[in-house]
Structure formats: structure tokens, C-alpha cells
Amino acid sequence: MGTNLSGKAVIAGIGATRFGTLPGRTTISMNVEAIRKALNDAGIEKDAVDALYVKCPTSKFEMMYGQRIAEAIGLQPRIGGVWDSGGSSNVIMISQAIMAIEAGQCEIAVVTFADNPKSGSAAGYSHPRGEDALYGWFAVLSSYAMIARRHMGELGTPREALGAVAVAARRHGAQNPNAQLRKPLALDEYMDMPPMVAPFGRDDCTLVSDGAAAVVVMSTERARKMGVPKPVPVLGFGFGQTGWDVTQRPDMTSTQAKVAGETAFKMAGLKPKDMNVAQIYDCFTITALMTLEDYGFARKGQIADFVKGGNIEIGGELPINTSGGLLSETGMPGMQLIHEGVRQMRGDAALQVKDAKHCIISNQGGVMHTHAALILGQ
Amino acid sequence: MNTTVQTKPKAMLPDPDINEVSKPYWDALKKGKLTFQHCRKCGNNWLPARGECPKCLEADWAWHDASGKAKLISWVVFHRAFHPAFEDRLPYNVAVVELVEGPRMITNIVVEDAEKLVIDQPLTFMPAEEQGHGIARFRPV
What we know:
By secondary structure, chain A is of the alpha/beta class.
């Protein structure tokens, strides 16, 4: 048994660029803007930072990218580099930073991500899947659609349940001035949408977006001493991964959200019913449904009952993706969800959940290969 | 004056990535035979081709003939082509099937209306050819 780090560290600051199309901006430049804003938000000088955790741009891998960011911000960090487990990277890096801080290896960490697939190349999302291009097996979205079909066939999940995720994200995103797609979606419109890779249509799929977002992490004690104005305590985190590709995964309808969520809830000493709001990775509608199921918000196969009737919308039992998520705010892989979790806990979100005390955030990567859960409090 | 109507050259299908380990699989498929790898140490069966058994990590395996019996794990129907070669095939399906011997693989189901397929329904192997390569399709039993 290790030390329980629940509440020992905080997210001290958040900063982001605009989301959408940012032509002419390099990912380095976007990272610097996000970091500058996050440091300003925390009210600290950059020289206090001694760890720099970076998720490499998804659309273009570059060697030693973390060190390029360090150079761009003129930093000599003790710990620095890139972590890649796809879209789970940001929560994992925040958690790794907290563990490093507790172990005395660093004191203040910046975690950052930027990418420009919208004005640059989004080819990475539509490439052949594995060695099977001869069969027409292309694009990330088709692997998620494959999982969705199995979930629908094995557990009887109706398309309306997938639609509920899209409708909630679009309703919330429409009220977020920074959201890339601010067009609400009615369930009828969702049901009538033409298929793209059936059972998915366009509204089941993530946006493609340029943008950057960063956070500052430090100990609760340090934040108090430095007079950080709006620190948000990290109460729990947990991870889980499978190595199996979708085609080989023995159980296609379960995700690593289960083990990650259990670990995070145990660390926080909380249960799903203690969550007042959630930011659930919604790269595709099925991802959010399965994550909620595996976190324990509904019994397996009964997620349709949980999400219907606006239950995951503002005013419902568990509002999710209150700034629009990947389906409406920005297709950025996960950091925007952490930012919205922080705003909800500070009480200054654009679409604030009244009296919200706890927020769970999911990040996941690959095709449900990797998962990380983060629980924030006040 | 050249009055010939210029037609776009037919897009080539992407060739499979055939290497030293997977070559026997593709050679067998060209002869209409579906094979899989069998571990002589632990008895595990798998596809696609790998140098080592993913269960016991040993490299002591052999190619075995598949019975051709399988079941449908899941499938999708492409209404959009992500590669020009598939533009004139829309809509087409791609499926994951599980052979009775255990291995899972990507395939296409030969069926009139893929939306009428059912999870776990029994299938049987149907050899086919695409662009000089043997491939493994399946059809409902």
C-alpha cells in the first residue's frame, strides 16, 4: 500500500488558445500561449516551474518535442518530456506530476498539449487500420463504430442512447462562446442523419480542431503559500489499459474505464453517486456511454435508461460535458475536459452546475486502449 | 485531334503488408486456403501473423488449416470511401469474425443487405481474390 495522495495536490491554473481553425500557428506557438495563460491564471512566474509534461501533437510526431517546448518558454526543467498513450495522456501526465511532486522530484509542473489537424493534416484519423486495407478497413471512427454495433447487438443499446450523448454535448456547447460547433441538435435530427460508417453518422464523431490547453499542478501546501487564487484539489486518479486491438479484444463491450474508475473512486473515498457533474471523453458517442457504464453510473446494458430524458444534460442527475466535449467544444484529446472540470469546481463555468462539489473526468486513447480517470473536488 | 474521352485510371487497392512471417498466410490464401498460427508450446491459436505467441511469448509455432467455420463478432457499413479504390463499392461492409479455432480477423461478409446481419450469427469461409492477392471473405451459413 502506497501513500494516499488524495487532496495533496491541486490544479492551480488553466490556460488555452481559441479552439477551431488557427491557420498559420505552429503547435509550439499554441503551446506557449496556453502555458502563458495557465501561469497567469495561477498567478505564478514561469521560473517557479521545474517540470514540463507534454503530449505530442496527435497529427505529427516529433522527436524530443518536449524539449522544444522547454526551449520555447526558456525553461530548464528537472523533469520534462513527452508521454504518449493517446487521449488518456493528459490525465496520466497530471497524475504522474502529482506523484513526482510528492516524491520530492519536482515542485511545480506544467502539463500541456497542442495540435493543428484542422488547418494542417488530419490524415492520421483516416488511415488504414492495421494490415487489412485490402478489405476496406479504414479510419479511427470505423473501429469505434465496430464497438458500437457490438454493444447494440449484444446488450440491446438503442441508437437513441448514442443520440442522447450527442444531444447533450451540442446543447451545452451551444451555450459556450468558445465552442467550435454551436449548433444544437435535436434527437429527431440525430435519428434522421445519414450514415457515414454505420451505425455512425457525422454527429457521432469528434470535431477536428486546432488549439492548445495547459494546466499548472502543485502541492496543496505550495498553492496556499504562493497565494494561488483558485486552486482545485485533485481527489483521485486511476488508470487502465488493454494491449488488444479492437479486432482482437476478447470483450468488445467493456473498457478500461472500469479499473481506472474504481482506482480513482477508491483513492478519493467517493462513489459514482457523489459526482454532481462529469466530463466524459466523447470522441465518439459510444465512448461516453461505455465509460459511464464502466464507471458504475448504470448497470452494464442499462445505460440507455440512465442517459434518456435529459438526465445527462444541465438540470439532469449527472450533467456531462458541460462545455460541449469533443463533439461540440473542440476535438482536442482531453485537456478541454479537465479545464471544464476545474471551472465547475471553481463555480465559474459558463454553464455552471449548481452546488457541484465533485467532478469526474475521463480521458481515453487509441480505440479504447488506454483510460485515465480524474476526480476533482473543492 | 484527340477526341478520346479521358477516364480516370482505376485506383489501386492498398496492398497488404506481407513480410517473412505472414507470407505463408498470403500464399495459402492465394490457393483458397485459410490458415492460422498455432503455438506448439501452449496451444494458443492466433491471427494476424506474429513472430511470437502473444500468450506464452515463445516462437515455436506452425501454420494450421482453418475449418472455415466462424461467427460474426461485429460489423460496420461504409457509406463513405476513405480511399479512392472503394468509391465505386459503396456501401460496403467490414466485419470482425471469430474462427471456431479461436483467432479473430477482419473480413467482408458476402451478403445482400449487411444491415440485416445479426451479432454472433454463424458464417463460413469464402475464398476470394483482389488485385492478385487471395483474401478471406465469409458468408452467412
